[in-house]
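Reopening: structure tokens for the fe (ii) ion complex, inputs below.
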Amino acid sequence: MAVQNSDEGRINVCEGDMIPGPKIREAAKLLLQVVDDPEMLAGLCTHCTPILRERLLQLSLTSGDFRIVNNAKETSTEAKSSVCKASPVIVEKPKLWSEESFSSSEEDEEPSSSRDCEELAVECDPAVSAPQNTHIGVCKPEIVQETVTTRAFKTEKENMQFAWANVALPSPGGKDDRNGAPSPRIGKEMKEVKDPGPLSREIREELRFHAVRRKKDFQCIEWVRGTRMNVAAGLELHTGVFSTVEQKRLVQLVEEFQEKGRNRLLRERTYSEPRKWMRGKGRVTIQFGCCYNYAVDKKRNPPGIIYDEMVDPLPDLLRKTIRRLVRWHVLPPTCVPDSCIINIYDEGDCIPPHIDHHDFVRPFCTLSLLSECNIVFGSELKIAGPGEFEGPLVVPLPVGSVLVLNGNGADVAKHAVPAVPTKRISITFRKMDPKKVPKGYVHPKDLENVAPFEVTGTVGHPR
Ligand SMILES: O=C(O)CCC(=O)C(=O)O
Ligand SMILES: [Fe+2]
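Re-run output (same inputs, fresh job):
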């Protein structure tokens, strides 16, 4: 249902006006709840929508008051021409990885380049930009900026000339966070602005938790063994679970382990780099927690988890990732993954049609990194050529998204990733069937009793 516009509560904002931070945060939280309304989104492409959501989220997390520095009509051209050169708004960086820091130190800061990337997602490679939904149609940066700065906020309320380019946010001490230099947008008067202090970790986590998008209504009706059914039932796609910075850290970790694997610094079966003798053959895999055998191996082990083969244990960052998945309601606490397989796809690499082995319990999930690709589902998948697979359901996997496989989607439908157009990394997290846990496996303490995040209802409603 479309959101109804109402003239009540219309706000006139003039240059120099101060808007108290709590009001802005409250407005941003409200907008976050209706941001997916079709009327709100009219004219926005699917690339812009997550950016708008991310920006609203940033606003809902900022501390300090806001001053309108000029009006939207004047600045929309300025914004258009300067978008790629400078951040149009100085926003206090919300703490990332809110439950726990990816790094050992709470205060660990990102290098300025990655922070710029967070703030100016439109300027960055879409492959590492804000969480995205499907990626249909690509906007030029200027167009994205124009859309975000004017159209999204103007709508019927012409008087509410609220635009990113028009707002200056004081950061503590009047400094630009990114390089410590005084911000050109913050004048003397801004020093008088009272900073209500940072939001608590719990509120930050709840806000980010509420911004996660969850698609659970996949449909693919097929006749299977005489029964008509939805073979996609049980599939879920979650976006916005990992920030761009968190994704970058995960990619870094994968690259570090790939390097160690190449240098034979990992257990023998942790890292595997098959010989590629034709297109669609082979992709690098890194396994943690258990050794999964794809096909009968040299020692005649059947496919499945090998009982007497050890691989390296799950690194700290991947255990944190698992906790995030459970805390943020992507996987149930009854199914905390204790193993994972990283697939590194170079351009042209693929994964052929398969159903994941039942040595792993359901549900399980796959995190997509670096670039978007399609995954195909169906009770029968056609092999149309080397690395070319076709099926009745094609699901685009946005960068940073998590696909959960359960029910028919995991056990009736096969899935395959056709040859990818560009390098991609996926991490599949799975819990071993307790009867199949390999010899010598030590269960990590921090994966015991992982509790899902409790929704307090103070911030918004789950989607
Ligand atoms: O790379 C993907 O998205 C799928 C990976 C997969 O199907 C698997 O590891 O079993
Ligand atoms: Fe799979």
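The first helix runs from residue 21 to 34. The radius of gyration is 24 Å. Marking as resolved unless the reporter disagrees.
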